[in-house]
Design goal:
It contains 20 helices and 14 strands. An eight-stranded mixed beta sheet has the order 4-1-9-10-11-12-13-14, sandwiched between helices. The chain has a four-stranded mixed beta sheet with strand order 3-2-7-8. It has a two-stranded parallel ribbon with strand order 5-6. It has two domains: 153 residues, no CATH class; 310 residues, 3-Layer(aba) Sandwich (UDP-N-acetylmuramoyl-L-alanine:D-glutamate ligase).
């Protein structure tokens, strides 16, 4: 989270978020500024455009990069300059460090490696870096203090200098300027915050499960970032939404891989909690040829988890988003606190979409929590814990009971289709199945949730047959793959829907 001990103007706060985003993975480069131009880096591009004029996407991205470098060089001093140079991987002092005898391996790691590695080199070389610039080094912060205090303070100071009315504009003097084009008519990018788990998936692709005490050969294997919340956040980004993930991530090499993957997909990682000294949770997934799967989870929930206080620290982001998506991948009390935060300002709150996998089996959800769920997206087997133990399990009556308890709309996903139970409770509404050779995959529901969020935003929060069909079409698109890479964009969903020939069953609101 951003350090907020000093009040900053809104435009500076927006820039802090941009800088936090760009420090991940390879740091700030013109190419990464250009790649995030649709949403993530817009405030920085707007600032460069104000200073230098509208010079085209690529030149403007280079101007924005040069503006940051020049501001760090001329407006930050001492330790702040060293920290900004390293965490953003600007390369400002590379020659000075090498001339002072610091080996090229260190400088290469300081500017080219992933953020976690850059931080490690910065701390391990703290005194040498200061000596190379003839500076007196203050006491080196610990890793936690660097992440939680030093870096946020430096980025806030940098943002404050960037937005000064007499802000420095050096470094981009060769850019040819032309009058800016008004952008007031551009619709705002909608914010979705996803809360839940981010893990590593070890996926084995098999023809059949081996019998007990035997083994069989897999015909494919992949190791990739996963988790319901992570995949939903990526799916939202693919649909053009400003997508932020709140999750706990270990600070081991797999945790770095998770952050790099999210960053490459355009997901904001500034709200993620890094857990020092922990091991990344893993899920073992066994995928069969037609897409059905089974999974074994090792959550490491004693170390890697979101607490109630973590969510309180991020309350402003939860309250201020357009759609909040949560999963049961976090402790029950944290999930309940998250939904309570979303309703803290009831007249201006986000829509809440919840997926209950894996369902809580040994703890009961408090009654008020059901009334804070706008959309519950579930598989039939996940409703088992909500069914009376003395009666045979049937998902329909349980779904109706959850709506009676306060859930606004329940979408029950079965074999690539969807049945809608909604308040006021009348007959369940089936959504037509789309033709597919695949059964539902582990990421299909995540595509449904993201598409539901996007379409609800498009349609001013109104749920209708159009919304349900579009989300179901997204689920069918995603069923052709097995990982987050198969998440569809809007064009793919619209094309698929047009080719299917399916239309809403009736024009009335469900």
């Amino acid at each position: 989270m951003t350090f907020r001990s000093e009040s900053l103007p809104t435009n500076a706060l927006l820039l802090v978020g941009v800088l936090e985003k760009l420090r991940t993975r390879d740091g700030l480069t013109a190419a990464r500024v250009h790649a995030g131009r649709v949403s993530t880096t817009t405030p920085l591009l707007d600032l460069a455009s104000t200073r230098f004029g509208n010079v085209g996407d690529l030149e403007l991205a280079a101007a924005a990069f040069d503006l940051v470098v020049a501001t760090v060089r001329d407006q930050l001093h001492g330790t702040q300059q060293i920290v900004a140079d390293a965490i953003l991987a600007l390369g400002l002092h590379k020659s000075a460090y090498e001339n002072a005898g610091i080996d090229s391996r260190t400088t290469r790691s300081l500017y080219l490696a992933a953020l976690g590695r850059r931080r490690l080199v910065l701390l391990n070389s703290w005194n040498r870096l200061h000596d190379a610039l003839d500076l007196t080094a203050p006491e080196a912060p610990g890793d936690r203090a660097l992440r939680g205090t030093t870096e946020p303070e430096v980025l806030r100071e940098l943002a404050k200098q960037l937005v000064r009315p007499d802000g420095h504009s050096g470094g981009s003097r060769t850019v040819t300027t032309r009058p800016t084009t008004p952008t007031d008519s551009t619709p705002p990018v909608r914010q979705v915050v996803v809360v839940g788990g981010a893990v590593m998936d070890a996926t084995f692709r098999i023809k059949s499960l081996p019998a007990p005490e035997t083994s069989s050969e897999a015909y494919g294997f992949s190791l990739s970032p996963g988790g319901k919340a992570l995949t939903q956040a990526i799916a939202c980004a693919r649909l053009g939404l400003k997508s932020s993930l709140i999750a706990a991530v270990a600070d081991d090499r797999f945790g770095d891989d998770i952050l790099e993957h999210l960053d490459s997909e355009g997901v904001d990682t500034s709200l993620i909690k890094r857990v020092h000294g922990a091991s990344t949770p893993f899920t073992g997934v066994f995928e069969r040829e037609m897409g059905d799967s089974i999974a074994v989870n090792w959550r490491n929930q004693g170390e890697v988890f979101l607490s109630q206080q973590d969510m309180e620290d991020r309350a402003g982001d939860v309250i201020g988003c357009d759609v909040l998506m949560t999963t049961f991948e976090m402790p029950r009390v944290t999930m309940e606190r998250t939904l309570a935060l979303a309703h803290r300002e009831p007249d201006n709150r986000p829509l809440v979409i919840v997926t209950p996998g894996q369902p809580y089996t040994d703890e009961r959800i408090s009654p008020p929590t059901f009334g804070r769920i706008d959309y519950l997206i579930a598989h039939p087997w996940e409703l088992g814990p909500f069914a009376p133990a003395e009666l045979p399990f049937a998902p329909g009556p349980v779904a109706e009971k959850l709506v009676t308890f306060g859930v606004e709309t329940l979408c029950l996903l079965v074999n690539g289709g969807c049945t809608i139970y909604s308040h006021p409770l009348e007959e369940a509404t089936p959504v037509p199945l789309f033709p597919t050779i695949y059964k539902e995959t582990s990421v299909a529901r995540d595509a449904f949730c993201a598409a539901l969020a996007a379409k609800l935003i498009d349609d001013n929060r109104t749920f209708s047959p159009d919304v349900a069909i579009w989300a179901t079409a997204a689920m069918s698109c995603a069923a052709s793959g097995f990982r987050s890479e198969s998440m569809p964009d809007r064009k793919q969903i619209d094309t698929f829907l047009a080719r299917s020939g399916l239309r809403p069953p009736h024009p009335a609101t469900v």
